[in-house]
Design brief:
heterodimer; A: 109 residues; 5-stranded antiparallel beta sheet; 0% helix; globular; B: 118 residues; mainly beta; 7-stranded mixed beta sheet; 4-stranded antiparallel beta sheet; 11 strands; 49% strand
């Protein structure tokens, strides 16, 4: 059973555009929601994270929007750049860290 | 630079032949994790060490074992690899103080070992 559902599976965005990746969860016990970025041949690296008592967190071009009542959260990448091309995983913390299935983002010049 | 190192980066083994993957860290973190990541899938936690305490996930097959001889090193042993065990194996570390705050600290991942089973 997938604890965290992530969409889309892949995303192509033009340089300068906005990339949006969505995640949903069911377990209300989850209380920490990180996003990881993974480049080919590398391990995932923490990008940005949020606690459910906050509705939005912004770090540079990356923003997490969190909707506790809908049990959904999303990653927005503003002014997307070719260097942002990677696989992005959302995750949720319960007794372990549960990952979404990943979104392969391609930013075309 | 402080980091998580995994060796080898690529490992080829034969069906049923035991294999050991290694992870070392210079971060002095007290928690070490092993994840399995199959192609186009999310990383799946196999087990973790909280200090010397081993915590196995309920659905981790008995074929997978782990050892942590000291703070810096952790090993993943696959006793009899099957074709379905071909995957990327990721080691991660974190510093946790336990209690209600466990798991909120960032996990630092190594580059992974890609295992091929022939």
């Amino acid at each position: 059973q997938q604890q965290v559902k992530q969409s889309p599976q892949s995303l192509i965005v033009q340089k300068g555009g906005i990339s949006i990746i969505n995640c949903a969860y069911e377990n209300t016990a989850f209380d920490y929601f990180p996003w990881y970025q993974q480049f080919p041949g590398k391990g995932p690296a923490l990008l940005i994270a949020i606690r459910p008592d906050v509705s939005e967190k912004k770090e540079g071009r990356f923003t997490i929007s969190f909707n506790k009542s809908a049990k959904q959260f999303s990653l927005h990448i503003m002014d997307s750049q070719p260097g942002d091309s990677a696989t992005y995983f959302c995750a949720a913390r319960g007794h372990n860290l549960f990952f979404g299935t990943g979104t392969r983002l391609t930013v075309i010049p | 630079d402080a980091m998580v190192i995994q060796n080898p980066r690529y490992q080829v083994t034969q069906f049923g032949k035991p294999v050991t993957l290694s992870c070392s860290q210079t971060l002095n973190h007290n928690v070490m994790y092993w994840y399995q990541q199959k192609s186009s899938q999310a990383p799946k936690l196999l087990f973790h060490y909280y200090d010397k305490d081993f915590n196995n996930e309920a659905d981790t097959p008995d074929n997978f074992q782990s050892r942590r001889p000291n703070t810096s090193f952790c090993f993943l042993d696959i006793r009899s690899p099957g074709l379905g065990d071909a995957a990327m194996y990721l080691c991660a570390t974190s510093r946790d103080s336990g209690g209600a705050g466990f798991g909120y600290n960032e996990q630092f991942f190594g580059p992974g070992t890609r295992l091929t089973v022939l």
